[in-house]
Amino acid sequence: MSEFAARRAAAMAGLERIDAKDRPAGLIVTHLPNVRYLTGFTGSNAILVLTPGQALLATDPRYDLQAREETDCEVAVYKRYPMLGQLLPKLKRAGLKRWGIEAGHLTVDLLGVLEKGLPKTRFVSSASVVEGLRMVKSADEIERIRRAVRINSEAFEKAVEHLRPGISENFFAAELEFQMRALGAERASFETIVVSGPRSAFVHARPSGDPVLANELLLIDMGAHCEGYASDMTRMVFPGVPGKEVKRRYNAVLEAQLAAIDAVRPGVSSVQVDRAARYVLKKREMDTLFVHSTGHGLGLEIHEPPRVARRHGSKLRAGMVITIEPGVYIEGFGGIRIEDTVLVTGTGCEVLTPTSKELLAI
Fold it and tell me: Is residue 276 located within the same domain as residue 327?
């Protein structure tokens, strides 16, 4: 059995854990990262239909050859939209009365297509089935994430050699992304964040045409996507000589990040990891300045389970890959965030990000 076939078998087994009253007999997968996880298909249009003993991948004519080359599934090609509507005869022939659907990714219109075409069928949310499998990475997935992390860090090191006050945030973001691609990344994992001065207090500010300012904080949040898998890192640069208050706040965030990393190990709730970071910042009277979660899982997507947050935590397991990224954000002053990509191991954790966490003064 291929790795993808084993994943599909595990997904079907996961349906058995859904409430018996509405337990699906088949699964309709429409979220493309989940399709890729279960089949290896990398195209931009596909639906996977899983029934006991069968896996059908539907796509359009652009991806006919690619789908047959990349997957070990039966492939069906449809020219008309919506593709889900063209699949209805096959779904009817399967003779199943209950189907699992990805409720968080299926539009109301497409659900209507299913309900109209299969009026005596129940559609049950199975959103957590594939995502639950994806939380624990295989050895191959971990190696791909390692490569993405290495590319990301090397791109940062090369790009920062060209960093100086006066160049625009947009220019430096482009330089970071150029270096990622030059080193082998498929693309950036997300829109690279480069933001200088007081605007760095905007947690997810976009880079602008404004210049990188001397003697102001510069926040850089970047990630490389390599062989389908993401990395994520945030580092702080200070063009000039940082003052006492900048150092004090930076060291508080660094202490919080190290405390959270120290809490990462199998069996610990991700809520406890989040709490470790907040405890440090509370001692420094900065906890109210920390306005987001401590981290998130990553893999095929830049944000995926488990969440490392105050509520709704997951028990950490070996093979999970998460970010640890506490921060503080102060109007008129700026933001400070430090982020690493971290692998949960059998005995603790491994910080995959090799880039120094010292405040980089240039």
Answer: yes
Number of domains in the chain: 2
Asked if 155 and 46 sit in the same domain, the reply is no
Q: Which CATH number does the domain housing residue 260 bear?
A: 3.90.230.10
Residue 94, class by beta-carbon neighbours within 10 Å (0-12 exposed, 13-18 middle, 19+ buried)?
middle
Looking at the fold, whether 51 and 189 belong to one and the same domain comes out as: no
Is residue 85 located within the same domain as residue 188? no
Of residues 67, 74, 110, the one with CA closest to residue 90: 74
| Same domain as 122, residue 192 | no
pLDDT mean over 7-18: 92
The partner residues of 50 in beta bridges, in order of sequence, read: 27, 55
Tens of pLDDT, residues 135-147: 999 999 999 999 9
pLDDT at 1 over 80: no
The proportion of the chain whose per-residue pLDDT surpasses 90, expressed as a percent, equals 94
End-to-end CA distance of the chain: 53
- In this predicted model, what pLDDT tens digit does every residue of 47-100 receive, in sequence order? 999 999 899 999 999 999 999 999 999 999 999 989 999 999 999 999 999 999
Domain range for 29 is: 3-134
Lowest mean pLDDT among 18-27, 112-121, 166-175, 216-225: 18-27
Residue 20 has pLDDT above 80, yes or no: no
Evaluate if pTM is beyond 0.85: yes
Check: CB of residue 323 under 8 Å from CB of residue 341.
yes
Whether the CB-CB separation of 82 and 106 falls below 8 Å is answered with no
Contacts of 175-183 with C-beta under 8 Å, sequence gap 24+, read: 176/220, 176/222, 179/154, 179/155, 180/151, 180/152, 180/155, 180/222, 180/224, 182/155, 183/151, 183/154, 183/155, 183/158, 183/224
User: Tokens 């429409």 — which residue?
Assistant: 30
Mind giving me the DSSP string for 76-90? Answer: EE--SS-HHHHTHHH
Q: Residues 343, 326: one domain?
A: yes
